[in-house]
UniProtKB/TrEMBL annotation:
Its EC number is 3.4.11.2. Residues 559-866 form the Peptidase M1 alanyl aminopeptidase C-terminal domain. Coiled coil: none annotated. Keywords: Aminopeptidase, Hydrolase, Metal-binding, Metalloprotease, Protease, Zinc. Residues 232-445 form the Peptidase M1 membrane alanine aminopeptidase domain. InterPro entries: Aminopeptidase_N-like_N, Aminopeptidase_N-like_N_sf, PepN_Ig-like_sf, Peptidase_M1, Peptidase_M1_dom, Peptidase_M1_pepN, Peptidase_M1_pepN_C, Peptidase_M1_pepN_C_sf. One of its GO terms (biological process) is proteolysis. This is Aminopeptidase N. Belongs to the peptidase M1 family. The lineage of its organism: Bacteria, Pseudomonadati, Pseudomonadota, Gammaproteobacteria, Moraxellales.
């Protein structure tokens, strides 16, 4: 065989959407035989291929040891194909080709957690987006769909042998080894292939679909974690029902398996019938995991399940279309979660994530459209923009259409494209045809980057009792995307009578009905003016209810009007949004804090009594990191920190005894359901931390008692944070106790690392202590993220000694696990906004790193980050 080296430069590695070409060969069937041994794995494959268009037969492969290749029974000799580090290319292949290949791979030393890898005693796969080419040579692209039969063979010390589809046969191979053969009847792309080999216990259940199919449900985990799989199992059954009821989509196979693995780059993966999950996204138990983690488990279970229709049965034509499946599936899981807890709180939580991650990403050097038009490494595009902004685009269309028409649109999408690999255009055309509403303008949201600014201005005329609202959109120029187009922006709004606090019935012809509860206006040009009549007083306007569009709103509210909305808005999301806007003015524009403090003092007792969960969110004060993302130059972490501390201290002082009274009166046990209990726990923790600010030493006793007496992780962790972050006398002892209590619980230990790394006064020495701890493990992304994520919670630390921590990690992971390395590095992407000398220091550190890294992931990320 002849190996041709591939010179690595960004120019020749960039892939463009406009260059898409159909594959020249399709694969009808694949037979895989995967034989796992201690120090190597042999993969044999038989592909039945058929020519579709003119061109070479190309099989993609990376880091494979090729043993042999045959076409139609005849071994190829070296002159008949070209092999390089990325592919085998066969010229003049016959139109019908049975390709037989044998390769050797090394899952036992695969640290990238991509392809087939060994994690402790478990062998698992992660093939999205381009991992299958690390298992064998294959047309590893999502528009090649095939039927897979998989034989897995391993030592009997691994009793569990799983692959996609139905189990056909099991048997022994000599005394020591055994095998299983699985057949997946559905046509799928290679990124959805999965297999698992290991020693795991299983939780079993079943579900009967609306079509009467009895589906066996199985969740695999290590024995001691099986009790922690019950919440996930319930969420799975709930998701299956939910997709039938809301989208008319029943499940299509006789089994659905989920496997929990502790070493995983991302959250989870929707492999057909055999999901593989990060333990953090499947294990849920009030004793061992926090409420936030429990909510996340349920949403990720739903997310991966929903992919079965939006992603698997209808997949992406190419990886530029990633947001087609991810944006839609996130929108679906968000809607599912809105049914699990209060819809307003779920929306608050989702928008918080959007604003904390996607908005900053979209305003900095990593900004890209939800559907990018070029990339070097597709793994770098599993971003907040693709996922979260992608979901927002779907939500805007759903808001505009209303429930019924949106459903007609999705029905049409499933009717037209089931079994196909499609594009964003196909989705928009189906939705338009099915609903009868032309949505083609929404394509612009997919194709261009940036968060639009929506400027609104109101004028009231008392003599005519009319109110004119003018709206205007604008986008910041983007170097790589010069021709930005106007976007369709749905603006949900309500008007309030300032005297009575009541909502006006909207009298305005321009509003869209469509079964949408709030009045919605569609701004589909650069600017517009709408008029409301019959208003006896100058109204208070509440704009973008439920965050009806992912834009930055600028409206000349008075601080008093924002305080009014906190008290009188009936839309919980906009109550929250009003407090956040008020806070930004105080913290970033030096407005006085008193109005906010008074409004909170006045409003919260009522809200706490009625809806503790919503109340807990209304106490949110934007994080320092989020506030930083609103500052584009001369950012000084200390200044933001001090202002935020001053505000929280003033709030704590103003609330005084109220915090303790509230704390003592809140009763978790008296709550009707999990979501209310979750609200009470969150509030108790907020009250504790506000009391700690009042310098009340009794609070440490209360916290310590809460720490010891509670068997609930949210309460325990909440109390531990108060003790540790305030250097309480009990802190060290509580940390030790926590460590010993959970020494065998990886997810709880992640909390232990995180809390210490997130200490506001953490030092480089403290971080070094954590990263040299016996339980720190660079092979486990969750553990890495617990320390780096904790560090990231305090920008003062992050932008001083934290920079070296991130740079060292990126350097190490560049070789060992570049997917995770590049992601962590993205957290430094706002370096350019720092004031000097930190700006130049960080820039030099990044430039020095650039000279030392090789992976496409890290190099592409650094190139973008440094091009500001
Ligand atoms: N498709 C998975 C999801 O549900 C994410 C997989 C991403 N994997 C990766 N290596 N980038 O969102
Ligand atoms: Zn997904």
């Amino acid at each position: 065989m002849n190996i041709v080296a591939n010179p690595v430069t960004e120019a020749n590695q960039t892939v463009y959407l406009k260059d898409y070409q159909k594959p020249s060969f399709l694969v009808d069937t694949v037979d895989l035989n995967i034989q796992v041994y201690a120090d190597y794995t042999k993969v044999s494959s038989i592909l039945s291929m058929q020519r579709q268009t003119a061109g070479d037969l190309v099989l993609l492969g990376r880091d494979l040891e090729l043993q042999s290749i045959k076409i139609n029974g005849v071994a190829l000799d070296a002159a008949e194909y070209q092999l390089d580090s990325e592919q085998i290319c066969i010229k003049n292949a016959p139109d019908i080709a049975k390709v037989e290949i044998e390769v050797i791979i090394h899952p036992e030393s695969n640290t990238m957690l991509e392809g087939l890898y060994q994690a402790g005693d478990l062998f698992v796969t992660q093939n999205e987006p381009e991992g299958f080419r690390k298992i064998t040579y294959y047309p590893d692209r999502p528009d090649v769909l095939s039927v897979f039969t998989t034989r897995v063979e391993a030592d009997k010390k691994y009793p569990v042998l799983l692959a996609n589809g139905n189990l056909l046969e099991t048997g022994e191979v000599g005394a020591e080894r055994h095998f299983a053969i699985w057949e997946d009847p559905t046509h799928k792309p290679s990124y959805l292939f999965a297999c698992v080999i290991g020693d795991l216990a299983v939780l079993k259940d079943h579900y009967v679909t609306s079509e009467g199919r009895n589906v066996a449900l199985e969740i695999y985990a290590i024995e001691k974690d099986i009790p922690k799989c019950q919440i996930a199992m319930n969420a799975l059954k709930h998701s299956m029902r939910w997709d039938e009821e809301h989208y008319g989509r029943p499940y299509d196979l006789d089994n659905y398996m989920i496997v929990a693995v502790s070493q995983f780059n991302m959250g989870a993966m929707e492999n057909k019938g055999l999901n593989i999950f990060n333990t953090s996204c499947v294990l849920a138990d009030e004793e061992y995991t926090t409420d936030a983690a429990i909510m996340r488990v349920q949403s990720v279970i739903a997310h991966e399940y929903f992919h079965n229709w939006t992603g698997n049965r209808i997949t992406c034509r190419d990886w530029f279309q990633l947001c087609l499946k991810e944006g839609l599936t996130v929108y679906r899981d968000q809607s599912f979660s809105e049914d699990l807890q209060s819809a307003a709180v779920q929306r608050i939580d989702d928008v918080e994530v959007l604003k904390a991650h996607q908005f900053p990403e979209d305003s900095g050097p990593l900004s890209h459209p939800p559907r990018p038009d070029h990339f070097v490494e597709i793994n770098n595009f599993y971003t907040a923009t693709v996922y979260e902004k992608g979901a927002e685009i779907n939500r805007m269309m759903a808001t505009l259409l209303g429930k019924e028409k949106f459903r007609q649109g999705t029905d049409e999408y499933f009717r037209r494209h089931d079994g196909q690999a499609v594009t964003v255009e196909d989705w928009i055309s189906s939705l338009s045809a099915g609903s009868g509403v032309d949505l083609s303008a929404f394509l612009n949201w997919y194709n261009q980057p940036g968060t639009p600014k929506l400027t609104a201005h109101g004028e009231y005329d008392a003599s005519t009792q009319r109110y004119r609202l003018s709206l205007e959109q604008s986008l910041k120029a983007h170097a790589k995307y010069p021709n930005l187009k106007d976007l369709p922006i749905p603006v949900a709004l309500a008007l309030f009578n300032p005297k009575t606090g009541e909502q006006y019935t909207l009298n305005c012809a321009a509003l869209i009905e469509n079964g949408v509860k709030d009045g919605v206006y569609l701004l589909d040009q650069q600017s517009a003016v709408i008029e409301f009549s019959g208003l006896s007083e100058q109204p208070v306007v509440s704009l973008l209810r439920n965050f009806s569009a992912p834009v930055n709103l600028e409206f000349n509210y008075s601080d008093a009007e924002l305080a009014f909305l906190l008290q009188h808005e009936t839309n919980g999301f906009n109550q929250w949004q009003a407090t956040q806007t008020l806070l930004e003015r105080i913290l970033l524009e030096d407005h006085p804090a008193q109005i906010y403090i008074d409004a909170i003092k006045q409003t919260m007792p009522n809200v706490i009594a009625q809806d503790p969960l919503l109340a807990s969110r209304l106490f949110d004060v934007a994080s320092e990191g989020y506030l930083a993302s609103r500052i584009d130059q001369d950012y000084q972490p200390e200044v933001v920190h001090e202002k935020r501390e001053a505000l929280l201290n003033a709030l704590a002082t103003a609330l005084g005894e109220f915090c303790k009274e509230t704390y003592l009166s809140l009763d978790v046990a008296a709550q009707a359901d999990f979501s209310q209990a979750m609200g009470v726990r969150a509030l108790k923790n907020i009250m504790l931390s506000l009391m700690a600010r009042q310098g009340d030493h009794q609070v440490f006793d209360l916290a310590h008692t809460q720490y010891q007496d509670s068997s609930n992780m949210s309460e325990r962790v909440g109390a531990l944070k108060v003790l540790v972050w305030n250097d309480a006398p009990q802190a060290e002892q509580a940390l030790q106790d926590f460590y010993h209590r959970y020494s065998d619980e990886a997810l709880a230990l992640d909390q232990w690392f995180m809390i210490q790394a997130a200490h506001p006064k953490a030092t480089a020495e403290r971080i070094a202590y954590l990263t040299s701890h016996a339980d720190y493990d660079l092979g486990t992304p969750n553990r890495i993220r617990s320390v780096s994520g904790g560090l990231n919670a305090n920008p003062i630390n992050m932008w001083s000694f934290g920079v070296a921590h991130f740079i060292d990690l990126a350097k190490y992971l560049d070789e060992k696990n570049p997917i995770v390395g590049a992601r962590l590095l993205q957290q430094l992407s706002r370096w350019y906004s720092l004031a000097e000398p930190q700006r130049s220091q960080t820039q030099s550190a990044l430039q020095a790193l650039h000279a030392q890294v090789k992976s496409k992931n890290v190099v592409e990320t650094l190139n973008s980050m440094l091009a500001v």
